[in-house]
Fold this protein.
Amino acid sequence: MARASTPARKQPKTLSGPTAPARTVAGLRRALNRENQPVGAAALLGETSRFTVDGHGRVVSINESAADFFHVDSARVIGRSIALLEFGLPLRAPGFWEGIYFALRIQRLFRFDYCYEPQNPTWLEVVCEPFDRVFNVSFRDISHRKEQEKRLFDRYAALLQERDDERQRLARELHATTTQDLVVVLLAIDRLREKIPPADHGAIEILEELRTTTVHALSDTKTLSERLYPPMLDEVGLVPALTVFLREFKAGRRCNITLNSEEEMPHFPQPVALVFFRIIEAVLPKIVRHRSHIARIQIRLGVDRRQAKLVILNVGGSVDAMRSFTELVSADPLWTRLHKLGGHAAILTIARGVQLSVSAPLDPA
């Protein structure tokens, strides 16, 4: 590709970010070939758009498909900052460039999907890859694939909802009928025991065995009912239900788990409370299993801007904790249910360990 005929201004050695000064933005916009034309996805269909930058964030090469997408003249951007492309693309959300800057910072292969034009969703698959002192960024239109995935997602979410409804129905029936019947059997055994003469050791032994078996059956039925659907969620709310669950979970395990919540936290809707409970129920065993020493886990619940927030921090966790969270987020149907509610999840590595952050609207659709 031809290089610019006019000498480029000296570029800074740091990457230009989305918060560049206004005068710089104005200068970049004047350099665009067709700055006011709307962006379309036609250039991406059937062809991969690609550009390459060096270690200072300067454009080394750009193919015609990418130049058409950004609405720039390829000859005018060679040797200039990547910010020239950034301000040439009228994306309202910063996620596209945040992903690229993140890949430049970590200097590793990074792949993500990005959606722009929310009214008429267009999806890009973006691949950032370091290669011999330069960084290749390629992207292509995957809107058709995303549309198919959405249809499958909706069907899967409907199946999950049906399964949840059935589990809740079974849990209530076990709690209301089977559990009560077993309690009646225990009372009958106790009354019968009182009527047997003390000398009839054989009958007393049989009744004791029958009573022990009934007690075990009652305990197993309660456990099964709670695993199908924790009744305390509806009776007293998420925090008390989690308090009971964590107390039982810590028994016999090498872990130190703390639960913190806001004092005046509003009541979470049942779908949100159930998803948060299931996430904690699924995450904790994975963290404890991967740790060779006592696991320190902090759980926080709160509300911010009409969003219910759940944070699970594995204190001191590193690679194993990241693997635990990643495996769960990528495979577990819980995340399908969370996205259906309009929620999101993110895995972060911070100074204290690895953190899983989950949010969901208090008014789910």
The first helix runs from residue 22 to 31. Residues 213 and 273 are 35 Å apart (CA to CA). Residues 1-46 have pLDDT under 50 and may be disordered. The chain has three domains: 22-141, 148-228, 233-361.
